[in-house]
Amino acid sequence: MSNDYKPLQGMSDIFGNDVHIFREIENIAHRVFDNYGYSEVRTPILEKSDVFLHTLGGTSDIVQKEMYNFQDRGGRSIVLRPEGTAGVVRFLASRGEAGLNDKVYYLGPMFRCERPQAGRKRQFHQIGVEQTCNPNPLIDAEVIALQCELLHQWGIENIRIKINSLGSLDDQVNIRFGLLESLEPYQNNFTKEEIERIHKNVLRFLDSKDEKYRKIINKLPSIQSFMSDESKEYLEKVINILKSLDIEVECNQNLVRGLDYYNHTVWEITHDSLGSQNALAGGGRYTIDIGKRKIDGVGFAMGVERILSAKQNAKYDINDEVKQGYWIISLGSTAILENMKLARMLRNRGAKVGMDLEEKSMKSQLRRADRFNALKVIIRGDNELNNDIVIIKDLDNHSQEELTLKNFIESI
Ligand code: HAM
Prior knowledge:
Blueprint (H helix, E strand, L loop, with lengths): L16 H19 L3 E2 L5 E3 H8 L4 H6 L1 E4 L5 E4 L4 H10 L8 E9 L11 E10 L4 H17 L5 E7 L3 H15 L8 H9 L1 H4 L5 H9 L9 H16 L5 E2 L10 E10 L7 E12 L2 E11 H10 L12 E6 L1 H16 L4 E3 L6 H10 L4 E6 H5 L2 E6 L5 E5 H7 L1
Parallel strand pairs: 1-5, 7-8, 12-13, 12-14
Antiparallel strand pairs: 2-4, 3-4, 5-6, 6-11, 7-9, 9-10, 10-11, 14-15, 15-16
Helix pairs in contact: 1-5, 5-10
The site of histidyl-adenosine monophosphate (HAM) has 26 residues, from strand 6, strand 10, strand 11 and helix 11.
């Protein structure tokens, strides 16, 4: 395709069957969230930079190198949202007491200026939930169960759920201190810049994919060894509740997530069919400082494009779009205006109806009916108009019948 017609790198036009699957994914999500008592919120795509700078963490990849931020015409610092949680929590904080114990869901585009590759886009879509509440293992487990229910309804099986705890906010001070102390003997393996980076956020170091560092990471004590018994019990409870709901999870002590607002339970859901970018979803419990408030909550977000790939890889038959509706074929120019009126009447009755508004040959109109995926065509020219009749042709079994206009309209 010529560059003139391409969208920006890492962004896509979504069209055709992909739109149908997007819609199906969204419709199922609305239904499942309704059943679980979540209300939908649509926050703005643009937010003040502060909303993300203070919540995601200054050392996170998103803040350091992936945010689309710019100054607007008034010189204000603005960000295209890279994720949903911070904006949604800002909204919940704005609701005062009502926002402190609330359950909301969202769906929409997010933007991260990452190096594009299969499964990693600069504009992608997330479906997520946030529930504001004090730490409670039952709620964490229910949020994970909701996520599993959604994946099941979308027809995605064979998922893996990795879970871990990052400890309470108090534990996190001990964890950082303990890990840095354990890394002291390995100082010579790092450059000055790496040591600085590790000191800024030692937890992120545990997530490093570099083989050289993995060898060191594997020798470090687990973060749970620096955690209080209460926090360890909290994670145990979440895992046991999930077990009693028949949800299997793998405890992975190196799972740390890429955003700084998390504490206690964190998790990631992966699907093997997705290749290197195999995370379908991520979530966890968090404490977010916003304005003068500290909000505790738990939530998750799923990448819609990745759900779409997992569905396609699961051989979901996306080409089997059902034929439906009518294409009206006009013979002669007088028929076009009369057919326009008929189309309007049928659409008002809930039918899917299309027609050409230019004079075209029968063959060309039939081709358009095919592209419209119409189940039937309605043929009307001067003869049919004069006799108040319509010819209805079924494009599947090729049968044809003649009906009075009145009887036909009443049958819709
Ligand atoms: P996250 O892990 O950064 O978490 O993103 C969640 C999901 O969004 C990922 O698992 C992936 O499916 C999708 N995703 C992320 N980046 C991309 C990309 N560049 N291209 C395509 N898909 C992508 C969050 O965003 C947190 N806000 C989740 C959360 C909600 N935690 C608590 N509440």
